[in-house]
Amino acid sequence: MMNSSCSVPKAQVMLQLHGMDYSLFGYNSLKGCPLTSGRDPGFTLPIFSGGADAVRPDQGVTVTARLGRDKWGPPFSGSQNFNILSNELRQNVLVVSTALCSLYDLTLLLMEPPSFHSSFVDWIIKLNNTDDEDMYIEFLDTYGTHFVSRARFGASITVIHKIEDNVYYLFKKDHLTSAASYSTSAHFGHPQTLTSDQQKAIAEFRNHETTTFAVGVPLPDGGNSAKWFDSSER
């Protein structure tokens, strides 16, 4: 892991902080889905207005593998993509592996928040002068259920292997986790020297349906993840 810090002119910062505007947006947890290529449908309209004066990047890449439905965040019950995944979980086990290229983190200082966006202020004034439930519902649909308090900027690739329940229970948990880790490391451009048993485990694992999501930087043609890492750091 490499750490670095720098201070650069504001115009240059805004050029480097690609996608920073999302940190000022509202987020609708009923419509969002983090496992979506490209823009998360949960982001709505700007709640805050703000700029940037400095960059303190934390550059690094990590590869993780995990089982089950943990760390999925709030119930994205209104998201079509999330509902599809939830239905899949009723009959299958999803093995989720994620590679992250984190360029920098952002934290909202709640004691010193940025100024509210003018359109958001107009909405608050309208709500303050009405008891109309439809108006409140329209507000939630426009700005969402949350604002962003912490965000990690960069890019990610998520690989989901779908395994039927009856097949999953034939695997030992540590065997499955290891196979996912070895398979994903190779997929993300980090091949390892494997034993014959490990190669067999990967071969069995790769026979199952696989879906890949790229956020921040799309996968290049041919799915070369090593090139993706290089593009993510630029």
Automatic annotation (TrEMBL):
Keywords: Disulfide bond, Membrane, Secreted
Residue ranges of domain MACPF in the record: 76-185
Coiled coil ranges: none
GO cellular-component term (any): membrane
Keyword Cell division: no
Chief localization: membrane
One matching Pfam family: MACPF
Cellular compartment(s): Membrane; Secreted
InterPro entries, per the entry: MACPF, MACPF_CS
Descriptive protein name: MACPF domain-containing protein
